[in-house]
User: Which sequence fits this backbone?
């Protein structure tokens, strides 16, 4: 059924204007962005299928342009670009809120922040969160790209950046675009190498977080740090 054929109080746009955005479900809000459906499929149905495909709004936040392209009905560049832009704005807003926290003081807060920053990347990156003595965020830097091994991530560079920021602690992070967050033996070896190098300048490694679309693993929580 086209949206115009719905009763006025059931149409997402009219409902939002009359009752506020809180009155709309996730699919209704998403339908407002999509605007049109497909032949034989309403925009509300398309919106719900999109949410189902990515596991809800949280999963959709980590979707990139290539992920959306696989969804029938989002093949057109204009609609896809508009949705990607809105999702990026949402990610940036959430990241700002997390940066303004007094501290990234729990593994959950760190995982959430890193998922927003890294989960949608199509290539593998290695990043470091530099923290002060109160575990407040000083900076997030992406230092290396490509397949991560002990030879492609240089401990000297990580140590120099930690000294530059006068950091007291760091959280290491990298993403697995393949979707698995299971740490490899190379991940474990790299963590221990960086932990030893940073200890020489009195900087603690609090965690190494592995991020994938929709999930993240804390090596500290797994007892691997």
Assistant:
């Amino acid at each position: 059924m086209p949206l115009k054929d719905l009763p006025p109080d059931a149409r997402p746009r009219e409902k939002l204007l009359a009752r506020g955005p809180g009155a709309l479900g996730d699919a209704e809000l998403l339908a407002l962005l999509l605007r049109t459906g497909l032949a034989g499929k309403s925009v509300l149905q398309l919106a719900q299928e999109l949410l189902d495909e990515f596991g809800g709004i949280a999963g959709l936040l980590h979707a990139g342009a290539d992920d959306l392209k696989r969804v029938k009905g989002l093949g057109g560049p204009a609609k896809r670009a508009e949705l990607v832009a809105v999702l990026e704005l949402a990610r940036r807003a959430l990241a700002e809120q997390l940066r303004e926290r007094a501290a990234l003081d729990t593994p959950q807060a760190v995982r959430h922040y890193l998922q927003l920053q890294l989960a949608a990347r199509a290539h593998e990156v290695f990043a470091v969160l530099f923290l002060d003595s109160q575990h407040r965020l000083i900076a997030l830097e992406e230092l290396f790209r490509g397949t991560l091994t002990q030879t492609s991530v240089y401990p000297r560079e990580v140590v120099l950046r930690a000294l530059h920021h006068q950091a007291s602690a760091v959280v290491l992070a990298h993403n697995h675009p393949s979707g698995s967050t299971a740490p490899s033996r190379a991940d474990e070896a790299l963590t221990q190498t960086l932990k030893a190098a940073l200890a020489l300048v009195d900087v603690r490694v609090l965690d190494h977080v592995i991020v994938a679309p929709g999930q993240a693993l804390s090596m500290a929580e797994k007892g691997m740090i």
User: Anything to note?
Assistant: The chain has two domains: 3-96, 103-218. The beta strands are 125-131, 137-145, 169-175, 204-212, 215-218.
